[in-house]
């Protein structure tokens, strides 16, 4: 018993320490705001206005939430006195700490209330609200060459300086490109960022419309950064270049066409070409090509290549492929042979006529078997250039008129000698070129305060939680926002968003999950990833054998203190029947509801009592651990959960300690087995509290606040 008391005391001490550090940080923040003239003053000469500074709302929300948590701590601590005499001193200590912390935070809360209402006193201090985001125009000036749609623009950015100024995060996710089409609202487009965190980072994106020659566009595209961005970054390279394939898909994409020569498959995230030598063929055949590129003219191609055949295998890509028929092959073939070590060539083919080793050059590194090489090619007009591993091999070489091919697609092939090729390709990237590249510059930085132009909970300004929206809208202690669907971050950095239902009438509950009936093994998905999130737009359960959820771990750990399981009969908020309890104080985002942590780790965790409140006014002391997962080995690792006893092995019907099963009867996962008793929860809207724990059909909604 003494050891248990020590463990519990240690657990409580660790739980209080983060709160003390939060308090200290918030007080320091307020002192900084006061000293650096960030507090909005009440001027005697003008009417005060509520602050529009988002940080104040967030700080107030955090303070309110912390006071709420501490009040729950205080209430729970008082209730713990009745649990066991052995815990009485510990509970009294927690009560004193909670009372002291609440007293310390109350003045801060009052000050933040004044700030929100615009009534904070501060002499004649001015408002210099901290700028943490903004935009800069991307100026595109074309020269003698028009730019085709989907031409890739490259912009150099001093990302290091932006980070040092506090305008963007160091991972680059909040450095985004927006397109303004004909006066419409700007929309984010895909971009690729390289050189993250350096002074010479580059941003690549492609034009959304054609640009004429000798024109300037300084309004259609802009870089948005920091708090000015909306939502997760769009960074799909397939929508940045004319073509891109890194072969992450297990099968060849539909863009590729096999040309009846060899076997071409995707293996281990790479393209493998086995051309299987066929006698009687020509010198080269196009084995695989892109069907969309026959209209291409001037392009740049980058790829990684490795030959694994024999020393006499001669692979290589083909550019300007104008005819893929075996009897009429027309293309520029870049040929490499291990037996020629440092020599390579552009070997033109025109109407099946072979130009031979006409445009030879020396490689910077011998073309050896089982060795990766990175090649880059540029074809522009009647000239071509080539680089191997960043070093120039062919420098703007002119092709004679008899071998010139005006345009064509991209392909892959091999010499048709008896020595077949076994070539591996990866990271094939193609972009358009023009004879006169445009001049790209950045305009002046324009700070943006989205809190002044956007509504919290919209896609442009997603919220950390529904409670944050609720608290930010309070006027005379009443929320101005209504129950409905809002945009919520599923990680608090804002890189992932979902639309979900918020119950504002009851204080700002966030709907994070719905489940109805037997849905199989969901322990890899349930509440830890975004799945069928469209179902979260209404709290009413409308389908059987279905579930939907968001990745609720960040919200549960960083922006909420309480969980509620509810019936799902209503369309306008929480169900009429529910149970609610405080989340464990020592939870961590990486471990909470993480089934893969495994049975052993969960069973070693300290179990603490928690008071569960029910819709009918009843209360029940149940138990939980820091992982939020049922520890008992035969209940499948159910979550969310509270249990009737410490270990979770003893269940009861018609009580308020509930658990949601995450796998099917008989299944085994991460050390747990499901004996069929995993769902100690309702099986319908009328089954409250549940009459059985053997049904295997959970039927409820999950909310956080």
TrEMBL record:
Pfam families found in the cross-reference section: 3keto-disac_hyd
Top-level taxon of origin: Eukaryota
Gene Ontology MF terms: hydrolase activity
Record-annotated 3-keto-alpha-glucoside-1,2-lyase/3-keto-2-hydroxy-glucal hydratase domain positions: 256-431
Protein's name according to its UniProt entry: 3-keto-alpha-glucoside-1,2-lyase/3-keto-2-hydroxy-glucal hydratase domain-containing protein
Organism: Pocillopora damicornis
């Amino acid at each position: 018993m003494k050891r248990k008391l020590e463990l519990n005391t240690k657990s409580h001490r660790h739980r209080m320490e983060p709160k003390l550090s939060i308090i200290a940080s918030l007080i320091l923040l307020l002192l900084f705001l006061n000293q650096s003239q960030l507090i909005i003053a009440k001027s005697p000469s003008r009417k005060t206005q509520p602050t529009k500074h988002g940080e104040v709302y967030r700080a107030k929300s955090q303070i309110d939430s912390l006071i709420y948590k501490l009040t729950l701590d205080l209430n729970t601590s008082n209730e713990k006195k009745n649990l066991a005499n052995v815990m009485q001193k510990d509970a009294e200590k927690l009560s004193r700490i909670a009372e002291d912390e609440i007293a310390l935070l109350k003045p801060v809360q009052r000050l933040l209330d004044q700030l929100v209402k615009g009534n904070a006193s501060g002499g004649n201090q001015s408002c210099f609200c901290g700028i943490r985001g903004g935009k800069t125009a991307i100026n595109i000036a074309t020269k003698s060459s028009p730019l085709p749609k989907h031409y890739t623009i490259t912009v150099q950015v001093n990302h290091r300086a932006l980070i040092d100024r506090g305008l963007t995060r160091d991972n680059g996710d909040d450095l985004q490109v927006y397109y303004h089409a004909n006066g419409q609202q700007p929309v984010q487009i895909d971009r690729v960022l390289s050189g993250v965190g350096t002074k010479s980072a580059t941003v690549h994106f492609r034009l959304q419309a054609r640009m004429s020659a000798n024109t300037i566009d300084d309004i259609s595209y802009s870089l948005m950064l920091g708090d000015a961005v909306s939502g997760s970054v769009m960074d799909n390279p397939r929508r940045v270049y004319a073509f891109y394939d890194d072969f992450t898909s297990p099968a060849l994409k539909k863009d590729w066409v096999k040309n009846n020569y060899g076997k071409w498959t995707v293996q281990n995230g790479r393209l493998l070409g086995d051309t299987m030598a066929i006698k009687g063929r020509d010198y080269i055949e196009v084995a695989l090509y892109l069907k969309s590129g026959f209209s291409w003219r001037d392009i740049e191609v980058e790829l990684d290549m490795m030959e694994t055949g024999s020393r006499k295998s001669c692979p290589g890509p083909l550019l300007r492929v104008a005819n893929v028929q075996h009897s009429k092959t027309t293309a520029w073939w870049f040929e490499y042979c291990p037996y020629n070590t440092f020599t390579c060539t552009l070997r033109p083919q025109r109407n099946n006529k072979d130009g031979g080793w006409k445009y030879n050059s020396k490689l910077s590194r011998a073309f050896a078997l089982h060795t990766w090489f990175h090649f880059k090619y540029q074809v522009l007009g009647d000239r071509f250039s080539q680089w191997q591993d960043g070093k120039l091999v062919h420098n703007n070489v002119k092709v004679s008129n008899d071998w010139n091919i005006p345009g064509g697609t991209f392909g892959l092939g091999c010499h048709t000698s008896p020595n077949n090729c076994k070539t591996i390709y990866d990271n094939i990237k193609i972009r358009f070129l023009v004879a006169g590249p445009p001049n790209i510059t950045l305009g002046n930085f324009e700070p943006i305060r989205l809190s002044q132009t956007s509504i919290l909970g919209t896609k442009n300004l997603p919220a950390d939680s529904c409670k944050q929206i609720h608290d930010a809208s309070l006027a005379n202690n009443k929320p101005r926002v209504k129950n409905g669907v809002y945009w919520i971050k599923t990680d608090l950095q804002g890189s992932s968003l979902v639309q979900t239902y918020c119950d504002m009438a009851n204080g700002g509950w966030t709907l994070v999950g719905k489940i109805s009936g037997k849905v199989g093994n969901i322990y890899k998905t349930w509440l830890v990833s975004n799945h069928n999130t469209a179902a979260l737009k209404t709290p009413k359960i409308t389908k059987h054998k279905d579930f939907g959820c968001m990745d609720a771990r960040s919200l549960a750990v960083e922006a909420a203190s309480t969980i509620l399981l509810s019936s799902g009969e209503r369309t306008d908020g929480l169900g009429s029947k529910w149970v609610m309890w405080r989340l464990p104080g020592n939870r961590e985002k990486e471990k909470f509801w993480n089934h893969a942590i495994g049975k052993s780790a969960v069973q070693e965790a300290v179990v603490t009592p928690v008071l569960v409140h029910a819709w009918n006014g009843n209360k029940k002391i149940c138990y939980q651990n820091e992982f939020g997962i049922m520890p008992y080995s035969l209940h499948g690792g159910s979550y969310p959960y509270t249990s009737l006893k410490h270990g979770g092995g003893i269940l009861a019907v018609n009580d308020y300690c509930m658990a949601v099963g995450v796998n099917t009867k008989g299944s085994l996962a991460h050390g747990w087995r499901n004996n069929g008793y995993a769902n100690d929860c309702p099986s319908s809207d009328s089954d409250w509290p549940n009459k059985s724990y053997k049904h295997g059909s959970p039927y409820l909604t999950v909310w956080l606040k």
